[in-house]
Amino acid sequence: MLACFLGLALTLGGCSSSGMPSLAVPGIGGGGDDADSDINVRPANYRAEIVAAMHAYLNDPTGVRDAGISEPAIKPVGGLKRYIVCVRYNAKKAAGRRNEYSGTRDVAAIFMAGRFDRFSETPREAAHEGSRGASREQANETENASRGPCADAVYAPFPELEKLAR
After folding, report:
1. pTM above 0.70?
2. Has residue 5 been placed in a domain?
């Protein structure tokens, strides 16, 4: 009899709301879209945050050429959706080498909770393996997927990055 009473109490207790906060961790499976709402806040001051981060990221932050930046967009990064901003630039190879540039590069600036988190380098060239014999449309989709989250980015001039000093 006691076992039946305990079983009924546990069953009914599981149906009620405990008032306890959810243990779901934002961005870690099982939480649904609502779990990402705190993490995926549109970055408000992304340009200034990227300039500050690039100052430390580049070996020689002076003389950056051809700088471009995209608008923040939610994209998949490592299996999770995050706000990213694509940055394109051509930086000097190393400090002291005046006119030697490394070539145009793209990086994805990843944001969490509206703040800069890290850079993720994007592949320089798309892998064309596996696209032989495919239609032009399929080959383009494969190429864009292999270029990462910045494959379809639309860049606007980013003069703040070109004005970096030591």
Report:
1. no
2. no
